[in-house]
Prior knowledge:
The protein is α+β, with helices and mostly antiparallel strands. The chain is built from 3 helices and 11 strands. The strands form 3 sheets. Strands 1, 2, 3, 6, 7 and 11 form a 6-stranded antiparallel β-sheet that branches. Strands 4-9-10 form a 3-stranded antiparallel β-sheet, with no helix packed on it. Helix 2 packs across helix 3. Mean pLDDT is 78; it is low at 14-27.
Amino acid sequence: MRKLLFLFVFAFSFFHAQEIEEMQEGYFYAEGSNSFFRVDIKKPFDYYKNAKCGESQNFIRAQFEGGDAAFTRELFKYISAYVDKQIYVVNGNFFLHVDIDAQGKVTHLDITPKVENSEMFLKDLSYAFNRVKKTWTPSKCDGTPVDSKIRIKVNFMTENGDT
């Protein structure tokens, strides 16, 4: 009996370890009543150097408070809250094109590609992104804050099952 108890304790201790490993890899899961939704927010993000910042100038990219991992957690939290898994069946890569001004505020968000009949999904995804309220530390060119652009690749996978 003790061996069986030990076996169960040993086996179930790995379930939590698997969850932590998946979060470190950027895979997050959210389950609905009959659909399974996976969001893979790819890291590192693509940061574009400001065109006004020359090759000889020191450029520091924009930073989210807490780093890219904190931003990824926040974004997933709002995607899982505001993108309805019951309505959308989304598979594939989408790109979030983000403009950050010299004050660290997000000034523009564009989501590509534009897919037929995806207006409501893109609107919900945009709404989820805009719920992340923290400001960014702006990009700097030789110590002077400048506008910048970021591209974030998000891969969606949805599986539906009968209940």
